[in-house]
């Protein structure tokens, strides 16, 4: 820049000051009151593995259910008929008994020929034919037994398909919502019928600044405040993500809360005060805060 003063060009100085505030600390506490929301430890959408019509519901919303308890009965008349046919075929023993009797007769005949040939009253050819007859009877009996085994497997398949029509709870929990009722059709594109949530444990996920996430470990116990009344409870760290979110400079930390008495609710605010965790990261012992740039004339 050029400014005229008399007959000479004198540059006018522009003094730019950057205000820098420096804080020195040996070990300081970072104020961080993190906020998250409690969630069911597990929330399972219970769906039908096969299409069909809902015959009946064994539960209502709010019911406590145990693992393996019947929740939904799908219409199963055709499968029950198929299973009855398969059971009858599996239980039939007539052909097996007939083949066993025939084999025993052939073996007795072979023994007779052996005795006769020792006395010279039978030929070797007759003995060979008796042996062949035993082999044929043994093969026939084996074939029938294999067929009976296949029939047993067919019955087991029909029974397994029938059991798929009886939908049970995958966990101990509470029925929190019902999407379909008796008489409604369950399609492959929309198979979910109801939801069961595990509430005797809760889960909450926090985004923790990396400077303090480095000091956390699995199975570590922490103090939390839950709900509008900020009920103090203990939690256990289950997982500290090894990945850092580059935008927020934080890591995901999942905490488990034991709730066997169901005193705490899912979906409520949960706070975690990190002031108790001092940071000793050398990178934050000396921090500079750059203020606005000002020009002085």
From TrEMBL:
Its cellular-component GO annotations read: efflux pump complex
Residue stretches making up the CusB-like beta-barrel domain: 204-275
Instruction: Show the coiled coil region(s).
Output: 96-147
Q: Do you know which InterPro entries this protein is assigned to?
A: Beta-barrel_RND_2 (IPR058792), BSH_YknX-like (IPR058639), RND_pump_MFP (IPR006143)
Q: Which UniProt keywords apply?
A: Coiled coil
Q: Where would I find the YknX-like barrel-sandwich hybrid domain in this sequence?
A: 47-182
Name one molecular function that GO assigns to this entry: efflux transmembrane transporter activity
Spell out the family assignment given in the record's similarity comment.
Belongs to the membrane fusion protein (MFP) (TC 8.A.1) family.
Q: Which NCBIfam families match?
A: RND_mfp
This one is known as: Multidrug resistance protein MdtA
């Amino acid at each position: 820049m050029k400014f005229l003063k008399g007959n000479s060009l004198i540059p006018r100085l522009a003094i730019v000051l950057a205000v820098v505030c420096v804080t020195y600390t040996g070990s300081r506490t970072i104020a961080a009151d993190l906020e998250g929301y409690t969630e069911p430890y597990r929330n399972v959408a219970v769906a039908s593995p096969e299409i069909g019509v809902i015959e009946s519901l064994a539960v209502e919303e709010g019911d406590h259910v145990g693992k393996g308890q019947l929740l939904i009965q799908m219409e199963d008349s055709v499968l029950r008929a198929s299973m009855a046919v398969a059971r009858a075929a599996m239980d039939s023993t007539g052909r097996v008994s007939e083949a066993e009797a025939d084999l025993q007769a052939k073996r007795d005949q072979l023994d007779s020929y052996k005795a006769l040939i020792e006395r010279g009253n039978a030929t070797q050819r007759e003995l060979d034919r008796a042996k062949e007859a035993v082999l044929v009877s043994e093969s026939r009996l084996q074939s029938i037994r294999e067929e009976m085994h296949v029939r047993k497997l067919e019955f087991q398949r029909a029974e397994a398909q029938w059991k798929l029509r009886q939908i049970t709870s995958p966990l101990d929990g509470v029925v929190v919502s019902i999407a379909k009722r008796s008489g409604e059709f369950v399609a492959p594109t929309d198979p979910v019928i109801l939801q069961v949530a595990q509430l005797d444990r809760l889960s909450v996920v926090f985004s923790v600044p990396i400077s303090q996430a480095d000091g956390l470990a699995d199975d570590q116990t922490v103090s939390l405040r839950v709900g509008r009344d900020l009920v103090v409870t203990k939690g256990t760290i289950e997982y500290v993500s090894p990945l850092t979110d580059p935008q927020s400079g934080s890591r995901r930390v999942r905490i488990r809360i034991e709730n066997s008495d169901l005193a705490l609710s899912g979906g409520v605010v949960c706070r975690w005060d990190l002031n108790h965790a001092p940071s000793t990261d050398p990178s934050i012992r000396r921090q500079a805060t750059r203020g606005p740039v000002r020009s002085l004339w």
